[in-house]
Write a structure and sequence with these properties.
Helices cover 1% and strands 52% of the residues. It is an all-beta fold. It has a domain at 460-555. The longest helix is centred in the first third of the chain and has 4 residues, at 7-10.
Length: 673
């Protein structure tokens, strides 16, 4: 049977990483209203405390009797050792990686002495991204041993002779196979076998061959490749394509493992389900491919009879004898996003993105769950995602969680939600989120006393919601979406009243994603961007959200894609990722003003209308536009919000809610007329 939760799991503290519906508010939660340094004289900034605090993770690997777990979206990044026999965190190390780093790649050398660690970062600062931790002296920190020129390391493999191989990627460049020689300490570029791939997430190695898996995960479409699998001959240093023909249409190769004389292959699916292939290492043309019922296959493990893998729906088993797939049955909680599966002594050790390890007894179909924060993993503030406020609460999205803060008492609850809440709205007291990856729209009502639930699902290739907007005239939640694998995007609509949803694919064109959405008088305004270097961007399209029919479109003649849209009066404001402001008269459908506001906004941004003015937030600054002259004014300088995938701002009750550093803040600003 599943262990009952410990008292600290039942009583979620603000600094904790567990989940629950009752919390204790401490003195750290007391709001502090101050005229913040760098704020306008008429502006009061209230510090509400850390935004979303938990132990978040992105990898898990069993070495001996300890599961090593890499953190996600925490600064500094870390790896902790969870000892299975004692169910305690017995070791940890911090890494000196860049901003908002995550540890997605772990691999152990054949002796089990060294753990190799690969990190990914939101912004490349030229720092090392490959580390090694000596597990015989775990009190000594991991040391930086090298850097791949690809910004991110997504997977690592260690060959039997101790040579390390790494794959990953950097935007706009084909991913490379990297080799690290422990004897010389040199990192070598072994080539990019797929020039049209956008990301590599899988690598495995033998004494003679390295297997490289890639595809179109980010910036798909526009000629990007689909699932690709190459064998690299270590002696001749040549690549050969070996991808099974049944997998060629899948967007990406997701996972590889060498087990018992076989190469085990998993894909991430698009229109079709993800697949598992079992290939004979002696004859790679001899293989079996089986389709799953999920969208992704990753994290392989094995016993004598089965190969195990994770998908978005749980843990599954592939029967070696029957070549069939079935779910692993057990008594226990939803596992959420799974980042590690290992097998030992008839049990599976499953690392959940919700911050726990589940030990599943395969034969008995029982489980024991240990919360990692309770076990000793240190929680910390995450970089935030979407933000929303209403009915006395403010919500902040993160990895595997949404924090709910009571604005009156300061009480904080971390709610479970798989993936990432990229943006959100509070509608009649109910929270609605756009959930990445391919999770659709989720719903949470504080009065229901239960965790968030999925309200609407959409085609899995429309996977990345970016912006939300509530349309009161039509009673519809509007969501702008990007398709990572196919290119283009979509407009989602959802009616809280009827529960009906709709998806309008490529409402701008088949290249531009929907980066921003705003509405007024029953019309939805969509702002386009383009994940590839070439092609159109910044197109604005007016759409009837009830029918999905286009009403008009406009090219505002910008050199960068739209970052944000907002409506004030008859004017539609647009902000680009290079800091270009344009204002469109919605009646004449003409640009009436344009300006360079890059002094306050470069890159991703968000805008909202509050107290008769349009406000914006960038990575550095909270600012506003004058409703008549459109002049920009700084509201809070150096706000420097710790955002994971672009800044956000939300308005409720006349106040603005956003992040300053890692702290949630309420901003009371009264613009002059």
């Amino acid at each position: 049977m599943t262990d009952s939760p410990s008292p600290s799991r039942r009583r979620l503290l603000q600094a904790g990483g567990a989940f629950g519906l009752a919390t204790a508010a401490g003195s750290l939660l007391a709001p502090r209203a101050v005229a913040a340094a760098g704020a306008a004289p008429s502006t009061v900034v209230t510090d509400l405390g850390p935004g979303l605090v938990q132990f978040s993770l992105m990898s898990g690997l069993l070495v001996g009797d300890t599961v090593y777990i890499g953190s996600r979206n925490l600064t500094p990044s870390s790896v902790v050792g969870f000892h299975l026999p004692s169910r305690k965190v017995v070791s940890s190390t911090h890494l000196g990686a860049g901003p908002e780093p995550s540890v997605q790649a772990l691999a152990a050398d054949p002796t089990g002495q060294y753990l190799y660690i690969g990190v990914l970062v939101k912004a490349d600062q030229g720092r090392p991204n490959l580390y090694r931790w000596d597990l015989k002296t775990p009190d000594k920190p991991a040391v930086a041993i090298g850097r791949t020129e690809d910004r991110d390391i997504r997977d690592l493999a260690v060959a039997p002779d101790g040579t390390v191989f790494a794959v990953g990627g950097v935007p706009g460049k084909a991913p490379v196979l990297w080799e690290y020689d422990p004897a010389t300490g040199v990192v070598t570029d072994r080539g990019a076998p797929d020039p049209k791939a956008t990301l590599a997430r899988a690598v495995a190695a033998t004494d003679t061959t390295v297997f490289f898996g890639a595809g179109s995960v980010l910036a798909g479409g526009s000629g990007a490749s689909r699932a690709s699998l190459f064998a690299f001959d270590r002696q001749t240093r040549t690549f050969t394509s070996i991808v099974p023909k049944e997998m060629e249409k899948d967007p990406s190769l997701r996972e590889l493992a060498v087990v018992d004389g076989h190469l085990i292959v998993g894909t991430s699916g698009g229109v079709d389900p993800a697949k598992v292939a079992v290939m004979d290492l002696e004859d790679l043309s001899s293989y079996t491919v089986v389709a799953t019922e999920g969208k992704v296959v990753k994290t392989f493990a094995a016993d004598e009879e089965r190969f195990y893998f994770a998908s978005e729906t749980g843990v599954h088993a592939y029967s070696k004898a029957n070549r069939t797939i079935s779910p692993v049955q057990f008594t226990g909680p939803d596992l959420g996003e799974i980042w590690g599966v290992d097998h030992v002594d008839g049990k599976l050790a499953v690392v959940s993105g919700y911050g726990f390890v589940a030990e599943i007894d395969v034969s008995a179909r029982t489980s024991v769950v240990t919360d990692l924060h309770d076990a000793g993993a240190k929680a910390g503030p995450q970089a935030g995602m979407g933000i929303a406020a209403g009915r006395g609460y403010v919500y902040l999205g993160g990895n595997g969680a949404v924090s709910r803060r009571d604005l009156k008492s300061g009480e904080v609850v971390n709610l479970r939600a798989p993936g990432e809440a990229k943006d959100a709205e509070v509608i009649d007291g109910v929270l609605y989120t756009g959930q990445y990856n391919a999770q659709g729209i989720w719903r949470y009502s504080p009065s229901a006393r239960r965790q968030p639930q999925q309200a609407a699902s959409f085609p899995s290739e429309q996977n990345r919601p970016l912006d939300t907007s509530w349309d009161p005239d039509n009673g519809l939640l509007l969501v702008g979406v990007q398709s990572d694998t196919e290119g283009g995007g979509a407009l989602w609509t959802y009616s809280p009243k009827t529960g009906k949803s709709a998806s309008y694919v490529n409402p701008i064109d088949d290249i531009q994603l929907v980066r921003a959405v705003a509405n007024r008088d029953g019309v939805a305004y969509l702002g386009g961007d383009n994940a590839s270097k070439e092609g159109p961007r910044a197109t604005v399209v007016a759409v009837d959200p009830v029918t999905g029919k286009e009403q008009w479109r406009l090219d505002p003649q910008q050199t960068a894609g739209v970052a944000a849209l907002a409506v004030q009066g008859r004017n539609l404001y647009g902000l680009t990722t290079k800091g270009g402001l344009f204002v469109v008269d919605r009646r004449t459908r003409k640009v009436v003003h344009s300006a360079d506001v890059s002094s306050v906004s470069k890159g991703f941004a968000a805008m909202v209308t509050n107290r008769g003015a349009v406000y914006g937030v960038s990575d550095t600054t909270l600012f506003r536009f004058h409703p008549k002259t459109f002049a920009v004014s700084t509201v809070v300088a150096d706000i420097n919000g710790a955002w994971y995938s672009g800044p956000h701002v939300n308005a409720h009750g006349g106040l603005l809610y956003t992040l300053r550093g890692s702290s949630l803040v309420a901003v009371d600003d009264r613009p002059s007329r």
